[in-house]
Amino acid sequence: MFIDHDESYEQIREAVKRLCDDFPGEYWRRQDSESRYPAEFVQALVDTGYLSVLVPEKYGGSGLDLKAACIILETIHETGGNGAACHAQMYTMGTLLRHGTEAQKQTWLPGIADGTLRLQAFGVTEPGSGTDTTRITTTAVREGDDYVVNGQKIWTSRAEHSDLMLLLARTAPREASPKPTQGLSVFIVDLREEVGKSVTITPIETMINHSTTSVFFDGMRVPAENLIGQEGDGFKYILDGMNAERILIASECIGDARFLVQRAAAYAREREVFGRPIGQNQGIQFPIAEAHIETEAAALMVERAATYFDEARPCGAEANMAKLLASEASWKSADVCMQTFGGFAFAAEYDIERKFRETRLYRIAPVSTNLILSHVGTHVLGMPKSF
C-alpha cells in the first residue's frame, strides 16, 4: 500500500496473509450468517501481537507506527476478512496513550497489549446528536471521588465484547461553555462490574455483522482517577483518535476495493459468454480498470494521511480526504464487481454480496461523506459554513 515501506512492512504484510489463510471465506460467511463475533480471529491477532501494534514497547506492545497498523487492516480486508471486529482496539487507546497520565497508562495499557483487557468500545454518538458531537446529552457529574454518568450512546460497536470503554460525556452544559466543543470530558470506563447494573447494552440488528449496540447509563459511578486529561477538554483529546480511526478505516476500504477488483478481473478473464471472455468487452473491462485506478489513487492519499499522523503533523484534512476517497473507491469497486459477476454475485459462496454490504457502511461511518465535504469546504478552502 505504501511506496516508502521497508522490508519490515513487507514482512508484516506476508505474515498477516499467512494468518488470514486460516480464516477463509467460509469462516467469515459463517460469522455473518450467525451474527457471531469472530472471537477466534481476534484471538489470533492478539496472540501474534498485531492487535497491540500501536502500544509502545514499554507497555508490552510492538511500538510500531500507524502505517504498520494500516498494512495489517488493509491485508485482512484484501484477503476477504473484516478488521472491523477489532480495529477499535488499535485507535481507541490512542487517546489514553497521548493524553492519559503515566499511572493510567501503567494501569490499562499492559492489559490491552496482552489481550487480557479488551478496549473495543468508543462511546461518543447519541440518538439525538448524530455527527454533531457537541450536542451530546450524556452527563458526568462529580460527586466526591466519583463521576456519576447518566445517558445513552448508540452505534457503540463491540460494547458486548469489551472490558473497557472510552466514553465522552458532558461535564458542563453546552450553553454554559465558551465554545460548544468545551465542557466535554473523556473517561476510561470499566464495564466488567457495571453491565447488568448501571449499564445496559442492547444489540442492534443491522444489514451487516458489526456487533453494534445501544448503551444506557443509569447512575454509573466512574472513579475520578479515570478522567483522561483535564475536565472539559475531552473533545480535543478524542480528535487524535478520530483521525487515526478514519485513516485505519480508509486502509480497510483500500483492502476491500482490491479484493473486489481482483475478484472482478479474475472472473472477467475466465467467464465466457457468446464464445468470448466477458473481460474482452470494453463495457466490462473499462469499469474494472477505472475502479482499480481510483483505488490506487486513494491509497496514495491514505499513505499521506498516515505519514502526517506518524510525524505528529496536523492531519485532520488528510484523514478526512483519505477516508472519503477510499470509501468511494471501495463502494465503486463493490458495484463494479457485482455487475461483473451478474447473478452469481448474489450467491453467498462468492463473498461478493457480503463485501458489498460491508463496504457500504464506510460512506456513512465513522463520518459521512457530506460532513467530510463540509470540513474541506470550510476548514481547507475557507468557504462559509453551510450549517
What does the average pLDDT come to?
95
Helix content range? 40-55%
CATH architecture of the largest domain: Up-down Bundle
Indicate the CATH topology of the largest domain. Butyryl-CoA Dehydrogenase, subunit A, domain 3
Helical segment tally? 12
Q: CATH homologous superfamily of the largest domain?
A: Butyryl-CoA Dehydrogenase, subunit A, domain 3
Describe it for me?
The strands form 3 sheets. Strands 1-4-5-8 form a 4-stranded mixed beta sheet. Mean pLDDT is 95; it is low at 1-5. The protein contains 12 helices and 10 strands. The protein has 387 residues and is α+β, with helices and mostly antiparallel strands.
Please name the defining characteristics of this protein.
alpha+beta, 387 residues, four-stranded antiparallel sheet, 3 domains, Butyryl-CoA Dehydrogenase, subunit A, domain 2, Butyryl-Coa Dehydrogenase, subunit A, domain 1, four-stranded mixed sheet, Butyryl-CoA Dehydrogenase, subunit A, domain 3, disordered N terminus, single chain
